[in-house]
Amino acid sequence: TNPNWWMTGQHLVDLDGAFAGAPRNRELVERITQAVGRVPVQVGGGIRSADTVDAYLAAGISQVIVGTRAVEEPAFLEDLCRRFPGRVILGLDARNGLLATAGWDTTSSRTALDFARWAGSIGVFAIVYTDIERDGMLTGVNVEATLEIATAAGVPVIASGGIANLDDLRALRHAAAGREDAFLGAITGRAIYEGTLDLSAGQALLDEAP
Question: What is the CA radius of gyration of the chain?
Fold first, then answer.
């Protein structure tokens, strides 16, 4: 078993781009990518064309995260997976289990679980699953829903939304016991800024052999 199956990297979201429908902070993203050197960088927010994906990858981005257009136009996601194998991550943001798009402004009638099941069959590298109701609230990650997404899709999931401390990461590890292919990583932001989670300690915990 690989003890380092939890991915280490930088997760960037161009929120301005998510609302605008096109990147608005590409120069900053590229500067961050250059600054962190060999640390993998994944970026999402406003990625709604193959040209944008091509430009980001050419700038050294490891993987791109596509959400809104992928949900609204599934053929677009299929095309990206064919053109950029291993470089496309699907971003699924859910509110009460239903997909949300356009910077969370729009809620779909389709469930995240159904879409994940389909997406897993077309070659997405991974899925970032965010429980919107928990994001930034430090109320704990939705472990059950995240594991359900991984099981339905058959591809690794990056957990997002609500992570507050080491106990949340322990809960993810416990849920993944014997399922090392279920989770690829965990995204946290506010917990680091607020000081409730030490990044080094969190990564060390996830890097421990199961």
Answer: 16
